[in-house]
Design goal:
The protein is of the alpha/beta class. Helix content is 50%, strand content 14%. Helix 2 crosses helix 3 (50-70).
Length: 155
């Protein structure tokens, strides 16, 4: 059965590293909104238009991902998916397409996230946003960790 893989975690938790590994092992089409966003708009994380642009890219990528699922290709959404409501929405979309869904949650303690953020910002990998510690703190507070029932694969 075709599967939608949802990468869940905060920046610097290792989502993209795992997603890149999974895209070859499964195999699957990996869709990463940040990579597309930076390619199109550059390092605009503090621009007032950033969120609107990012939402448009995620919508576009879901169009590609849903078509791939319908054609029988596994898909990885490497978005972060910080809210349960958002994760449930994508799982319902996958189910409508006849695909299963699976969450890959990378649970990293705050101190480790901030340590990794400092390293990432000093070496900024291609396709990654520069994120200040001040930007990261409210995101850590907002993030909804998946509960045990979410972590089960759904057909």
């Amino acid at each position: 059965m075709t599967t939608l893989h949802l990468m869940v975690g905060l920046p610097c938790s290792g989502k993209t590293t795992l997603a890149k590994k999974l895209e070859h092992e499964l195999p699957a089409l990996r869709l990463n909104a940040d990579e597309w966003h930076i390619h199109l708009f550059g390092q605009d994380a503090e621009d007032p238009e950033h969120d609107a642009r990012h939402n448009l890219i995620e919508t576009m990528l879901w169009g590609i991902g849903s078509r791939a699922l319908a054609l029988g290709t596994n898909v990885i959404l490497d978005y972060g998916l910080w809210a349960r409501e958002e994760r449930e929405d994508y799982r319902a979309r996958a189910k409508k397409l006849g695909a299963s869904s699976e969450i890959h949650f990378l649970d990293v303690p705050e101190a480790e996230l901030l340590r990794r953020l400092e390293i990432r910002n000093s070496q900024l990998p291609e396709g990654s946003f520069h994120i200040s510690k001040e930007m990261m703190q409210p995101w850590i507070a907002f993030f909804e960790k998946p509960l045990a029932d979410e972590l089960e694969r759904r057909a």
